[in-house]
Design a protein that fits this description.
Strand order of the largest sheet: 1-2-4-3-5-6-7-8
Number of helices: 13
Distance between the termini: 11 Å
Largest sheet: 8 strands, mixed
Strand content: 15-25%
Helix content: 40-55%
Number of strands: 8
Radius of gyration: 18 Å
Order of helices and strands: HEEEHEHEHEHHHHHHEHEHH
Structural class: alpha/beta
Length: 313
């Protein structure tokens, strides 16, 4: 019997292949007015978090070049049937910037403490970019706390083709960190970030100007680029941690692996099948790495229907 989300994926693929149009550039979208915004102190870290909706809890984790603000369009949709929790990762956005702890296993503990503070035991995860890495560390170290896991367009350190991917010139920024890198970027944050928004979008797509201005201002705050670079600096430790987590056992919850057709594409599903048993792959044609910004009309229903699908077994 075919999986309901597999049938959705086939229909979605046919729909998106038939349409080559690109949506007009929107303004920067706000979260729904009924979302609350809180700063939750869990000891070592103050986490900036947006919370709204009711029902099964779902956590949305962002990546580099953005903050939890990226999730506003998806959060508005999911809040109809879910309690939606959207934090800024350690050191990013409006969360505090500790001196260390940017390995993804420590950030998985950040998430566990945040959920404990909110009185939430189990969640579904939706993640992008570095959020994928934090999400995997959380799901692998706290499997009973994750009901479903949707990842969007980024690999996992140490898993599958990581070494091959890390040798590509396109990811030179993974090794760009330290005091001199910070000096070079200081006062030029928008120039640096434009490189990612320009080159990682698919040809013909443009990352929205309103979002560029918003994130460039946040990343220009004191210590923000240092914390962002620390996320990359920690990849070597993440490789060690992920291989240890992989050796402990495979993920058994349903996994949706979404790749931009002009980015990681079907490799997302290949990567996740290295560590998970129940993986559905979806490729979003015409999208680069910024899938939610480039193809919201395709990715939002794919994630929503995955979260709302009945158990596959």
């Amino acid at each position: 019997m075919s999986h309901p989300v597999a049938r959705l994926s086939a229909a979605l693929l046919a729909l998106t292949l038939a349409s080559a149009s690109v949506a007009a550039e929107p303004g920067f979208p706000p979260f729904p007015a009924d979302f609350s915004v809180r700063d939750i102190d869990t000891g070592e870290l103050s986490t900036h978090v947006r919370i709204g909706g009711s029902g099964e809890a779902v956590v949305l984790l962002h990546g580099f070049g953005e903050t939890g603000d990226m999730w506003a369009p998806l959060a508005a949709e999911l809040a109809r049937h879910h309690r939606v929790i959207v934090p800024d990762l350690r050191g990013m956005g409006l969360s505090s910037r500790p001196a260390g702890g940017y390995d993804k296993l420590t950030q998985a503990r950040d998430l566990a403490r945040l959920l404990d503070a909110l009185g939430i035991r189990q969640v579904a995860l939706v993640t992008h970019d570095i959020g994928n890495m934090v999400g995997y560390a959380f799901a692998a170290s706290h499997p009973a706390r994750v009901s479903r896991f949707a990842l969007i367009d980024a690999p996992l350190p140490g898993i599958g083709p990581w070494d091959e991917i890390a040798r590509r010139h396109a990811v030179w920024h993974w090794s760009f960190w330290g005091a001199d890198a910070e000096r070079l970027v200081a006062g030029r944050e928008r120039i640096y970030l434009d490189r990612f928004w320009n080159e990682l979008a698919a040809p013909g797509n443009r990352y929205p100007e309103a979002a560029r201005e918003h994130y460039a201002e946040l990343y220009a705050r004191p210590g923000a680029m240092h914390a962002a670079f620390e996320q990359f600096k920690a990849f070597d430790q993440d490789v060690i941690d992920n291989r240890a987590l992989q050796a402990r056992g495979r993920l058994t919850m349903p996994v949706l692996a979404v790749g931009g057709g002009r980015s990681y594409g079907p490799r997302m599903a290949e990567i996740m099948r290295e560590v998970a048993d129940d993986v559905i792959g979806v490729v979003i044609p015409g999208s680069g790495h910024w899938v939610l910004e480039e193809r919201p009309a395709e990715v939002i229903p794919a994630v929503r229907d995955f979260l709302d699908a009945p158990p596959s077994r």
